[in-house]
Design goal:
Blueprint: H1 2-5, E1 11-16, E2 22-27, E3 44-49, E4 53-56
Antiparallel strand pairs: 1-2, 2-3, 3-4
Length: 82
């Protein structure tokens, strides 16, 4: 997926999980491979199944879209789940 979205401009990603949940994101400036964030507060996350919900940016940081397949650890501002 990273090769298809890298540098292509605004991007809508929709995923269906193995248990039937449908969710995704809109990246306003798209994804660009590297160690910096891209986008702005018009980027958002969403889910369609089991409920329709939109998760807008909080404005607490300027971290919107990040794509770095070469990174060995999570960048500052991202937290991995155990």
């Amino acid at each position: 997926m990273s090769k298809r979205v890298n540098g292509e401009g605004p991007c809508l990603v929709v995923v269906e999980s193995t248990n039937g949940r449908i969710f995704g994101c809109f990246a306003s400036a798209g994804f660009c491979m590297g160690s910096t964030y891209h986008g702005d507060a018009t980027s958002f996350l969403f889910e369609i199944q089991p409920h329709v919900r939109v998760y807008s940016a909080t404005g607490l940081t300027q971290n919107y879209a990040y794509l770095n397949c070469q990174q060995a650890s999570m960048p500052n501002g991202l937290v991995s789940s155990p």
